[in-house]
């Protein structure tokens, strides 16, 4: 193959491929051409002297696939720390809906930039974002500028008893979502895809939910992204309103299939697990959010045992106060053990939830989620050579290091589509100091508008 200047060669200490054989490679290099991994081979097989392109030597670092988070609210990053110690419905009513309602374009833009800066620096290269009610175009603009891979969509709310001001008619929601999907679905070579985003049952009429699902037919490859059965009180109100629990209700109106991402799924009745499996629904597990809001613990080991698709997400910054995939992996590995035993949710299983299982959930397993020839070069370099990590060097200890002993500070560098977007753990797409000062200013003004 003819070499061009777009060729890159990465030489790490080890490569956690997450391929079908779950190989961990040592003394191997990865060649990237035009954003695609086109060769993985022993370093000795490359002629480094004549290689035409950029060579990245990371001989002390471990290369892993870019992380995938299937439930995020970029619009909420600015509200971090302003809605602590509340349960979901109070959290929405007293804090989050009033804040989201007060966003203007400037405050939303800085919120999204802060979120993307944190996600990318922390090794996340693909997200599913819930969006917000107004100025959704700002989120798309920033997603495109950042280069991150995303399913995103405008949040839809056509009834709101918790905070009546934060709402729009069903017609407005459907029409504007349709227009956004028309404009942004499959944008930037398919990096941006549309995920229709009705907020949750309590803020959506049945007509909105059904018409949204209908609308997806015009946008093949789009997703339906919503929350389900997060909180006990919410679960009870849904049951009272519709005579059935949340997931069963969704099933009864034809919402569920393999292009539906349901965040949380904590309070489920036995039959509902069967619906998740039967309809091949994608569950996004957000353990830090579920703990902080006191929502409960989803029965993830049971879901995995029954072949239900599970992936991870940090949710919004005000409901866990961090967008770090490392926190989510750590908690996903820890919180189920007291209930299901210490062998449940082992490190490798959890690592896969944040990589290849996330890719499968989004039907992107042929493009991302593992390090294999032909896949997109979404790659993360980790420093696993630290004194607070195991010094044992066997293959399985790599998963242990990542899940049990790492945090976002272990991220050395991140490539998205073959482009280096960090420098020593700092996201180079933004000026972090400026983000913080602009963020403080916009937050001050936003609080004045609430
Ligand atoms: Zn959420």
Task: Provide key terms for this protein.
450 residues, alpha/beta, binds zinc ion, 20 strands, ten-stranded parallel sheet, eight-stranded mixed sheet, globular
Structure description:
By secondary structure, the protein is of the alpha/beta class. It folds into two domains: 8-65 and 368-425, Urease, subunit C, domain 1 (Roll), CATH 2.30.40; 67-361, TIM Barrel (Alpha-Beta Barrel), CATH 3.20.20. It contains 17 helices and 20 strands. Strands 6, 7, 8, 9, 10, 11, 12, 13, 14 and 15 form a ten-stranded parallel β-sheet that branches. Strands 1, 2, 3, 4, 5, 16, 17 and 18 form an eight-stranded mixed β-sheet that branches. A two-stranded antiparallel sheet has the order 19-20. The radius of gyration is 21 Å and the shape is globular. The structure holds zinc ion.
Q: Summarize the biggest pleated sheet.
A: 10 strands, parallel
CATH architecture of the largest domain: Alpha-Beta Barrel
Bound molecules: zinc ion
CATH fold name of the largest domain: TIM Barrel
- Portion of residues within helices: 25-40%
Secondary structure class reads alpha/beta
What Rg is obtained from the alpha carbons, in whole angstroms? Answer: 21 Å
Task: Based on Cα principal axes, name the global outline.
Answer: globular
Question: Number of helix segments?
Answer: 17
Indicate how many domains the architecture comprises. 2
Q: Let me know the average pLDDT.
A: 96
Count of DSSP strands: 20
Assigned CATH class of the largest domain = Alpha Beta
């Amino acid at each position: 193959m003819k070499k061009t200047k777009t060729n890159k060669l990465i030489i790490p200490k080890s490569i956690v491929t997450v391929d079908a054989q779950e190989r961990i490679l040592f003394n191997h290099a990865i060649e990237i051409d035009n954003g695609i991994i086109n060769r993985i081979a022993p370093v000795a097989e490359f002629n480094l002297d004549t290689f035409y392109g950029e060579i990245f030597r990371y001989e002390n670092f471990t290369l892993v696939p870019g992380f995938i988070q299937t439930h995020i609210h970029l619009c909420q990053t600015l509200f971090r720390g302003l809605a602590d110690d509340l349960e979901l419905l109070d959290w929405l009513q007293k804090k989050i809906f009033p804040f989201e309602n007060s966003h203007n374009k400037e405050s939303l833009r800085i919120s999204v930039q802060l979120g993307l800066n944190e996600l990318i620096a922390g090794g996340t290269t693909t997200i599913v974002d819930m969006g917000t009610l107004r100025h959704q175009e700002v989120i798309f603009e920033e997603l495109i500028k950042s280069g991150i891979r995303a399913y995103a969509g405008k949040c839809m709310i056509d009834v709101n008893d918790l905070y009546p001001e934060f709402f729009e008619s069903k017609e407005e929601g459907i029409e504007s979502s349709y227009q956004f999907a028309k404009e942004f679905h499959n944008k930037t070579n398919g990096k941006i895809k549309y995920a229709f985003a009705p907020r949750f049952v309590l803020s959506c009429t049945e007509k909105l939910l059904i018409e949204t699902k209908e609308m997806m037919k015009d946008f093949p490859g789009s997703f339906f992204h919503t929350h389900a059965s997060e909180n006990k009180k919410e679960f009870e109100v849904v049951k009272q309103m519709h005579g059935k629990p949340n997931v069963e209700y969704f099933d009864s109106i034809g919402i569920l299939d393999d292009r539906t991402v349901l965040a949380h799924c904590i309070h489920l009745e036995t039959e509902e697990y069967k619906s998740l499996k039967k309809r091949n629904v994608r569950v996004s597990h957000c353990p830090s959010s579920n703990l902080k809001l006191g929502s409960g613990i989803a029965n993830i080991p049971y879901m995995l045992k029954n072949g239900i698709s599970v992936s991870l997400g940090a949710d919004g910054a005000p409901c866990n106060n961090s967008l770090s995939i490392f926190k989510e992996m750590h908690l996903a590995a820890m919180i189920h053990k007291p209930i299901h035993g210490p062998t449940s949710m082992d490190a490798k299983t959890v690592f896969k939830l944040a990589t290849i299982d996330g890719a499968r959930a989004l039907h992107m397993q042929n493009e991302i989620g593992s390090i294999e020839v032909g896949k997109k070069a979404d790659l993360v370099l980790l420093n696993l050579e630290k004194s607070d990590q195991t010094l044992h060097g066997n293959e399985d200890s790599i998963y242990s290091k990542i899940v049990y002993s790492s945090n976002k500070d272990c991220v050395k560098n991140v490539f998205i589509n073959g482009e280096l977007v960090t420098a020593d753990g700092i996201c180079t797409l933004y000026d972090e100091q400026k983000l913080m000062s602009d963020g403080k200013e916009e937050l001050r003004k936003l609080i004045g508008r609430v």
